[in-house]
Amino acid sequence: MAAPLRIAHTHVHSLRLGSGAEALVARVLAADGTPGFGFALELDAAAARDMAAWDALARARQAPLAELLGGRRREEVPLCADAGAAALVDPFASGAIEQACAAAASASALALLAPHAHPWEITFCAALAAALPAPEVRILARGSCSPARVAVPRGPGIGIDWSLEAGFAALRWVEPA
Fold it and tell me: What is the CATH number of the domain that holds 32?
C-alpha cells in the first residue's frame, strides 16, 4: 500500500517498553519536512511506517486523523473485552487504515483489536474509530477494560501521547543529509 503522502526520509527504531515488550517506532519526514510517528507492537515495520505517514499527513494539514478519513462520527468509543457479534478488524497491519475503512462501509458493527491493551494502541484505535461509518464501533482490549469508554483525540495527527513511554523521548533521531 502506498503512503498517503510523499516520504522523504524514514527511521525505524526498536524500543523496549516499560512493560518489557518490544516495539518498533517509526518516524517519517514528509517531503515538506513534516514529521510523523507510528509504532508496531507486533514488529511490523511496514505498519509502523504507514501509521507514521498518516500522522505526518494529518500534522501537515493541522487536522486529527478522523478529519482526513471523512470526518469525526463519534466523540468516544467503548472499550470492551469481548467483540460480541462485531466484525473484528486488526488496525495494526500494513494498509490497515484503508482496510478498516473498507470493512466499516459494509458492517453494522466493528471491533478494532488492541491486542496488548497498550495506551498507544487504544488511542490509535479511538482515532481511527472516530471516522468509521459503521453504526457501532468498539475497541477490543483483552483483559481489563477500564475506563469503559475512550475519548477520541482532537489534536493534529493520530493523537498519541508519546511521553507515556520514557524510551521514546530518549531516541536520537538522525537528521537526513
Answer: 3.30.160
